Amino acid sequence: MSRGNTGVTAQVVNAHACPVREVLDRVSGKWSVQILVAAAHGPIRFTELERSIEGISRRMLTLTLRNLERDGLVTRTVHPTVPPKVEYELTTVAEELHETLLRLTDWAERNRHHIAESRAAYDTEHRPELTDS
For residues 48 and 54, is the Cβ–Cβ distance under 8 A? Predict the structure, then answer.
C-alpha cells in the first residue's frame, strides 16, 4: 500500500507522537531515571539525592525535581522544622514507571553480552579499519 493510500499524513503522525515523545524525553532523561531509582525506596531528602547521584549539580537536581513534580511523578513535602526538612517521594504513577525501568534494566543486563558481540561482529564486517589497530 502506498503512503498516499493510508490517509495518514506526517502532520497526523507528528501530532500524535509529539506528546508521547515529550513524556518519553522527560522520563528517560539521564537525571530523571537516576532520581526515580534513588527515590523508589521511600521518601528521600534533597541532600540524600544529591549524594546518591554522581555528577549531578545542585541546579540540575533542583530543575529535574521541579519538572518531575510538575509532571506528577514526585511529590515534595516540606516539614515545618528549623531548618525545613524537604522530602521527595514517588507518586503511584512513578512507581509504575519504576517497575517498567526495572524490567528494562533487567532486559539490558540479560542482553548486554549479545549486544556487545553483535556490535563487534558488525564493526568487523562493516568498518574493518576500526578493528585493524
Answer: no
Residue type, 113: H
Q: CB under 8 Å, gap of 24 or more: what pairs does 66-73 form?
A: 67/26, 67/32, 68/26, 68/32, 68/35, 68/36, 68/94, 71/23, 71/26, 71/27, 73/27, 73/36, 73/97
| Residue 58 pLDDT class (50, 70, 90 cuts) | very high
Bridge partners of residue 77, in order along the sequence:
87
pLDDT tens-digit series, residues 19-39? 788 888 888 888 999 999 999
Which of 100, 82, 85 has its CA nearest to residue 27?
100
Which tens digit of pLDDT belongs to each residue from 104-124?
889 999 999 999 999 999 999
Would the pLDDT of 133 be above 90?
no
Q: How far apart are CA 32 and CA 77, in angstroms?
A: 19
